[in-house]
Each structure stands twice: as C-alpha cells, then as structure tokens.
Amino acid sequence: MLRSGMIHMIREKAQGGKSAYAIGKELGISKNTARKYIERKESSPPETNRFSKLDAYKPQLHEFMDQGIFNCVVLLERLQAAGYDGGITILKEYVHPYRPAKALPAVRRYETPAGKQAQMDWGICHYTDSSGILHKVPVFVMILGKSRVKYAEFTSRCDLSSLERCIVNAFSYFGGMPENVLTDNMKTVVTGREAGKPIWNTRFADFATELGFVPKVCRIRSPQTKGKVERLVRYVKDNFLPGRQFENLEDLNRQALCWCRQADEKVHHTTGKIPMQELEKEDLRELPPQETLDKYRWETRIVTRDGMVSFDGVRYGVPWQYSGKEVRVRLCAGYLEIYCGEVLLAKHKAQYRSGNVVFLQGQYNGLAERNGIPTSFPCAIKQNGTVEVRKLSIYDQLLGGVSHG
Asked: Which residues cross the membrane (predicted)?
C-alpha cells in the first residue's frame, strides 16, 4: 500500500489531466496502481492530514532537488537550518517520487527499419544432472530488430566455430539475413580497439564477408545499445529454462526452437504485433548458396594415433588407417559425421557427456597384421616360375665389361 504523500501526488497529477499510464511512468509505479488510487476516492486520507510542517518549506526543498540533492539526511539538515522542525519520515515520503531511478542515464529508444539489423549475444545458463550436480551451458541468442523474431541455441562451447555455426543456423531459421548484426565486444568478433575503432577478428571478418552481412559492435560498457538481445537472454533464463526437463543438448535445442516459435506467435508487448506475421515484412537479404552455409557447419580435427576424433569433450572412433590425418566433422540430426575428403569414415550417435569414448565397430581390424602401418611396405614382388638362363656376356655388357665370347 502506498503512503499518503504518494497518494496525494497521484491525485494531483490526475486532476491535472494526466492518464494513469503517464502518472505510473513518472512516479515509478504500475499504471494499474495509479488507476486504483485515482478511482478509489474513499481511500483518500482525511483532510486533517492534508497539511504538514513541510508545506511551508516545499519551494526551498524543490530548489535543493533541482540542484541534484536527494539525500534526505542532507535535506533535513538544510531545512532545519531554515527553521523546519518536522521529522525525516514525512520528508522521505515527499522526496521519494522525485528521486531519480537507479537505471540512469536514460537512453533514446531506437527502432531499426525492416531488414536492417539483428542483435546477437551469448548467455550462460545452468542445469542440474540426475546426481544433482550443477552445470553451466552456453546459449546463443539472436533477435531481428524490427519483427522481434527470436532464435536460441544451446551449445557446448562459445568458440568461433560454434558462433559461426549458430549464426548460420539462425539465418536459416529466419529464412534470410539482415543487413548488419550487432554484438558486444566478444573476443571471437573483435581482438581489440585502435583509436576507438574495433580491430576485427580476421576469421570472423572473412566469415561475415562471405555470407554478406556487416558486423557491428556496441560501445564498450554500453550494453543498453543492444537492449533487445539483452532482454532476450534474460527471457530465456527466466521463462524458458526454469524447471525444464531434457535428455541431452539436441532435445534441449528442439524444445528451445519450439518455445521461440510459440512466443513469436503471440502479440509482442512492446510492438503490439505478432512477430511471426511481421517476419514477412522484414525484407531480409537472400541467403548464400547452401554449400556456403554448410561450409560453416563443419569443423576440422586431426585423428589421434589411436584412431580417435575429439568433439565437445567426447572421443569418437574412426578406422585406424586414418590416424594422423585431418578430417571434417559436423553435428547433423543428432549424429556426429566424420569425413575425410568426400569419404564418410564414421557416423556416431552424438554424446553429450564429456569424457565419453565411442568406438567404431571394426575400428582396429588389420592393425596388428600391418604393425600399425596403414599403407603397404615398399618392396619388390617375387613370382613363381622358370627363370630365364642368360649368357654371362650379357651381364658384362650391362656393366660395361669386356665380352668373353
């Protein structure tokens, strides 16, 4: 329940013609609370409490607040010096609505044109396993600036390969690309600054150029410039994850996309429109060819001497003959595919528990017989049959000697 000073202020502003929404925004309360005290006349304090010892000092009090003084202890001392003999409680009640919010400085609301911008970020979420042990899991989020369509993907890592794969997946989900993508100063995007300008991570800059979007970074220590995606990170943590049950990362991501779509089929509280319907008006750029997108869904690995490939902390087996070779790996429909060139070496059910080892059936066939050498030893071939008898003079001629006749 609000104190009498606040209730008086709500009534005064309402009499001045302000709406409940405007009063709530100005005083830092909800519009419903403001409306309640405007409409419930019977809850007004008695007229005998309307005047107080502070009334005569309010003009001077406002002068102090105009100077940026809101500390009530300081204000009390200054008013007492002017003759005020009241208490501090009534002073606090009066000053409270005028006190600036802690979220200052305020920023100008910025709406991007259709197809202009998407915002992306990483968030760190938590879950407990069946043993009650707490784990961290990164989540990549992206939101289109105009329509507010959302994308979320949980990963095992926050490295550049994961970032590129998530961006490609997000663009594919949206059905196109925005003109630019805004992010914070993550090390996978920028390596530093020079004269206030970002020094781009070369590999990420090449990735952005090949796909055809322009990367943008917000000012250092100014996360409010990408407020849409900041709110989305909190939205995922507060609305999607709590109490969520899942089997593995694939299952969690399947649920996350379903949740994003359900949320985007409802009216957005800021725009007052349905994001999925507004997506058609985004005027996104056409996606690059499929082979270009698929290129960034792959990662390279070197096969270990014991014929294993490491991916997300899990070791997967391949035929031992490929030990030491560079291979390409990708997650696809819950499976890890391992290729050498165009040859599919192995396809394993993806595992999500770090430290697991998954062998390939027949992985070491022939290893002992060949002593671990995958290729044949260079040697001549002995054939069975009659050996041709030749004269010794033939060999002397070959050696440059004298013929014996």
From this structure: none
Nearest to 119 by CA among 213, 228, 222, 211: 228
Residue 139 has a pLDDT of 96
Is the pLDDT at 303 greater than 70? The verdict is yes
Count the alpha carbons within 13 Å of 119 in the hemisphere toward its beta carbon: 21
Q: How far apart (Å, rounded) are the C-alpha atoms in residues 165 and 157?
A: 11
Residue 109, strand partner residues: none
* Extended strands (E) in 249-320: 299-302, 308-311, 314-317
The pair of structure tokens assigned to 146 is 């105009």
- Contact, 143 vs 177, CB < 8 A? no
- Mean pLDDT across the stretch 21-37? 81
- What is the Cα 326 distance to its own chain's centre? 30
Evaluate if pTM is beyond 0.70: no
Topology of domain 117-291 in CATH is Nucleotidyltransferase; domain 5 (3.30.420)
Q: What is the arrangement of strands in the sheet containing 180-183, beginning at the earlier edge strand?
A: 150-154, 134-144, 117-128, 180-183, 214-217
Q: Is-cis flag, bond preceding 105, omega within 30? A: yes
